[in-house]
Description:
By secondary structure, the chain is an alpha+beta fold. The protein is built from 28 helices and 16 strands. Strands 3, 4, 5, 6, 9, 10, 13 and 14 form an eight-stranded mixed β-sheet that branches. A four-stranded mixed β-sheet has the order 15-12-11-16. A two-stranded antiparallel sheet has the order 1-2.
Amino acid sequence: MIQAQVNYYNALQQPDKQIIQIAALHANGITAFELQKYLLPSVIDQNIIADAMEAAVENGLFTSVNIANPYYYVDVDFMVEIIPDFTGFDEVWNKMLKDEYFQWGKNDKTAFRNCIYSLLYHPKKYAEHERFFRQSYQPTMYSRYELLVMNPKYEQFLSGISQEVVFEVLQKMADSQPDNLMPVAVTRQIIRKTLAACKIDEQSLLNLLDQKYFLLHGDYEKAIEYSDEEQALEITAYAAITAGDVQEALNLFRQALTIRNKDLRHKLLLPVHSCYSMLYYLAALFSIDSQTALPVFRKIHQWMISGKTKYSTAVMTDFSPVIYFAVNDKRELYEQTIKTMTELISKHDINVSVLSYIVIIYLSGEKPSCDKERLTDIARKACDSDCRILAYEALYVMKQVVDSPVIDKLFNQLAEELGYEPVLSKIIRQASWEKSLNMLMGVKNDGVRENIEQNIRMAYIFKPKEGVIVPVVQKRQTKGWSILKYIKIDSFRNADIEGMSVQDIRIAGKMKKVAYSHSGDGQNYQFTEEVFTALVGHPYVFRIDEQKVESQVEFVAAQPVVSVRKSGKGYSISTNLRRSDKSVYVEKETPNRYRVYDLSRRQQQILAIINAQSIIVPPEGKDKLAELLGMFSVEGITVRSTLKASYKL
């Protein structure tokens, strides 16, 4: 709540102040007519009530909906600010409680209001109101209670709150530091005072803040002292990349991911739990040879579009445009996310997210569009906070967006203090056409690239009689590749098998859940028919005959064929596919070569009509037939005919 709102409220005279107090105590949406019955005395004219409430809306104390008959909703910060100053409101509060009971009027605001009011004025009733709030509105409870912890007016009352709630609030405050660019020392003081007031001994929260302080200041050696093995590896990676050792940083990030993924069912390909880890990891990939980085970016891209990232965090969502940019996939999601971030930079409260968005937009190949004055405000607040390493990278971007002596000065100050060049300055930029050519050159490597460094490769067993595909692995040995070895399906589905390529990840995405299996090894999943379309071109598919002899199998993409033959009565139309009731067909060409048809809905409809009955077109229908054959070609159907197609779009 800003001071201007407090000043406006404090300057109010009766009856306006009484009207505002009653509306704030009500908390939920209320009209001027409904307000009148709670006012003491209830003789204030409705026009006076409406005028007072409209003025309160204009000054940010309330919001309103429905222009004809407005409902007024209190700003929660304002409600928290004024309730400690109330006297003589018990009768009104009890009346509101009764009305809510009969009207089912409770929501999270009124439940929170009851917690505040009882905590301050009826402590014996507080426990029941807290219990109701926790049972009904726990997702919003801790953010609401943080307002009490942050407000000095509640300091003497905090011991009345259950220790569990207090600890959870402080835990979230420590975790989210420094989202609002508040100095760590301020948050530490609040947490320490609250712990003391509530008689809670929890040194871990203070240790967490100490780690954040050292991390935000770039003092990585001290930050590691408070870290577990995974965090220590990532923080060491930060130190490596800022010192210019990009390859060592990437190695450390991968080691940290291995530890993190050890017990995870859905494996991560990115260090998604930290904004700083994502920033430095992606910046490191952009700083190495593009031919080396591109396969990594492509694998991450496939992981993202496969839907497995739903088990990651909001950090992954924020950084997703960077991945799309890396593989030249500037789809609608990329454009919309960049637009949203640009708007938030220009209008949102200045916090750590704004700094992150500036960096993300730059990593995504763009420059944030923002006016000079706004960027200068962001730069000042960032440098006044403890977020020095993030501020440094954001200031590097701002310097390229606007010409500002203030931003230049702040950047130079941080550069001198930190003693290294910004990580973003190490990025190697590629022209869009060059990235596209690199992508095309990499297409042939979608399968497993067999080279001297690769010791494991994915392969597949094909059982033609059952139409079954089984994923296996092979290991390089002195005399060649090992026998085909079965793997855990769960590990395969989660792309957690060494040697998996981009194509293997696509193949893994073609599994569905079937009847429950008691084996617990993931065998209650099997491939859908679409797996054959994903197997097209894979170099390591094997058929095993009854004598256990392996022979390599090739799946090739095929198009349906429509043939037109001239006969005595005219022209007959036929197709090589006699069925069209499903989208994917696998047709044996030779014992070791299979055609895969991936039929669109339109192709299925066309084939169904042709196969429904014998079609003979008389000579006078020749022109129309030629136009139809042209349409077939447009629909991806191969046409075999002496007639020249004439279809026009």
